[in-house]
Design a protein that fits this description.
The chain has 19 helices and 9 strands. The protein is an alpha+beta fold. The chain has 3 domains: about 180 residues, Beta-Lactamase (2-Layer Sandwich), CATH 3.30.450; about 180 residues, Hypothetical protein af1432, CATH 1.10.3210; about 110 residues. Helix 1 packs parallel to helix 6, helix 2 runs antiparallel to helix 6 and helix 7 runs antiparallel to helix 8.
Length: about 525
């Protein structure tokens, strides 16, 4: 392929540039073997990475043009495996000694060789390994991090020949460049792993502030990626030409994990509000109602004393006062029972609200002689919520988490492929018709990534266990709600269709808990 040393050097420079621009470790390893094979006209090649902690070599990459053309090979032919880090194998010998091995025929090794060639692969796959060039991959400190193994160099007629000794130094140079690229990719991978773990831990910890939302961010991330991948597999409709690259999926994953990070700015008492009034608030109310009954008893006693001073002993009037007192105590108990009932409930009817207003307006005289309402204004505000447990102010406080999310995520220096994470994370409550929050933007200003996350967020919230402001809903009803929201112009109709037809809603389910009756075709319209 290369007629002279100058061409090879030029090719080596281009390969070096290509290696330095690839940061994905898996793709980089494949690229190293492919370019080295092209550089040396090798039919096959492998790459091993050294693992000193486990005292072994990891067989990471295997490429073979001859076997690639075969259709009878099993999937496990090139399955990765580990190799003991000893001098007995050719790759192990090079990894330990750093010596370059250029072997004309591995079936005819010299008797004094410390290593041997394992013919099992050749036997299983009816392949003949002959010439082999093994080069240690050394980083800038001279540390051996892996072995590049090239197999069966071919001439212009396709015949297997030995690897020319003149290219050994060039392949060693290529291996050194590859080693640096691998170290950089490993470092980036480790940094990303730490960063991702930090994001996931932080989001999970914030979710766990309330037992109702524990695991929510994880679920949204899974549904989001499942829907994005389903779009990648869609070849018709409005999103037929949309394809999310690995970098874009990573960006979307981060945004999904971070979408509720702003709930750190919402009070736990609001996030975890299980009833309209809290336990201590109800205890204060119970005590007050005992005082109301005591006030009624005291008032009746005063009426009895007044009657006695006016008329003397009057059994009939005393009996009437006792009956009125009992009726009043019964009414107080009934009012308290009603309050207990609506405090633990989810819906408050119109008639229930009117009854609550009547209770709120009732008066009693406290122990200090002051006239007071049965309920404080704050108690009435909380108890009069028509649906769920949250007041309007509390709902606004929860909705403010989106602003907090935007403020927090904007302070993270996301750049390059991740620069739009804040935009996607902060928009998951916006609706296509502008009825969402906090900015009330409409469809044309909502990117597809945010639309995807919105579908995932709503579905996860619907099927999640009971929350203070909603009851848990089954998968079928939840999907029907998504369809209704799409048909009403709030959600992306096509995304909801793909979510259902591609079964992206199953992303979070255990493999043994399939909802088999959900696969029915949804006709859009």
């Amino acid at each position: 392929m290369y007629r002279d040393t100058r061409e090879r050097l030029e090719a080596l420079n281009k390969i070096g540039i290509g290696l330095s621009s690839e940061t994905n470790l898996s793709r980089l390893l494949e690229l190293i073997v492919r370019e080295a094979r092209n550089f040396t006209n090798a039919d096959a090649g492998s790459l091993y990475l050294v693992d000193l902690d486990k005292d072994c070599l990891h067989f990471e990459v295997a490429q073979n043009d001859t076997l690639k053309k075969r259709t009878d090979l099993k999937p496990e032919t090139f399955k990765p495996y580990t190799l003991p880090l000893t001098k007995k194998s050719i790759a192990g010998y090079v990894a330990i000694t750093g010596e370059t091995l250029n072997i004309p025929d591995v079936y005819n090794l010299p008797p004094e060789a410390d290593f041997e060639f394992n013919r099992d692969f050749d036997k299983r796959n009816k392949y003949r390994t002959k010439s082999m060039l093994n080069v240690a991959m050394k980083d800038t400190e001279g540390k051996i991090i892996g072995v590049l193994q090239l197999i069966n160099s071919t001439d212009t007629q396709g015949r297997v020949v030995s690897f020319h000794h003149n290219i050994e130094s060039l392949v060693s140079s290529l291996a050194s460049q590859a080693a640096v690229a691998i170290k950089n990719a490993q470092l980036i991978k480790e940094i990303k792993a730490v960063f991702e773990a930090l994001i996931q831990y932080s989001a999970s910890a914030i979710d766990a502030r309330s037992p109702f939302t524990a695991g929510h961010s994880r679920g949204v991330a899974k549904y989001t990626l499942a829907l994005a991948r389903a779009i990648n597999d869609t070849h018709e409709g409005p999103y037929a030409d949309v394809f999310f690259s690995p970098a874009q999926l990573e960006e979307l994953n981060y945004a999904a994990w971070l979408h509720d990070i702003g709930k750190i700015g919402v009070r736990e008492g609001v996030l975890d509000k299980r009833s309209r009034l809290s336990g201590p608030e109800m205890e204060a109310l119970f005590s007050r109602f005992e005082n109301i009954k005591a006030s009624a008893i005291t008032e009746t006693q005063k009426q009895k004393m007044a009657s006695f001073h006016r008329k003397g002993e009057s059994p009939i009037e005393i009996g009437e006062l006792d009956r009125e007192l009992q009726n009043r105590i019964n009414q107080i108990d009934n009012d308290l029972a009603f309050i207990k009932d609506i405090n633990a409930g989810y819906f408050l009817s119109e008639s229930g609200l009117r009854h609550l207003e009547e209770i709120h307006q009732k008066k009693y005289v406290d122990l200090e002689g002051r006239e007071r309402n049965y309920l404080t204004d704050l108690e009435f505000e909380n108890l009069s919520v028509r649906r769920g447990n949250l007041t309007r102010d509390e709902i606004e406080e929860i909705q403010s988490h989106v602003i907090h999310t935007e403020n927090i995520v904007n302070k993270v220096p996301f750049t390059g492929d991740l620069r739009k994470v804040p935009l996607f994370a902060a928009g998951h409550h916006e609706m296509l018709d502008g009825s969402g929050y906090p900015k009330h933007v409409k469809a044309e200003n909502i990117p597809i990534q945010t639309r995807i996350m919105t579908v995932a967020d709503i579905y996860e919230a619907l099927v999640a266990k009971d929350r203070p402001y909603k009851k848990s809903i089954g998968p079928i009803e939840s999907l029907d709600i998504l369809k209704e929201e799409a048909q009403n112009g709030r959600l992306d109709n096509e995304l909801v269709r793909i979510f259902i037809e591609k079964r992206a809603y199953e992303a979070k389910e255990d493999k043994h808990e399939k909802t088999g009756n959900l696969h029915r075709k949804w006709e859009v319209g």
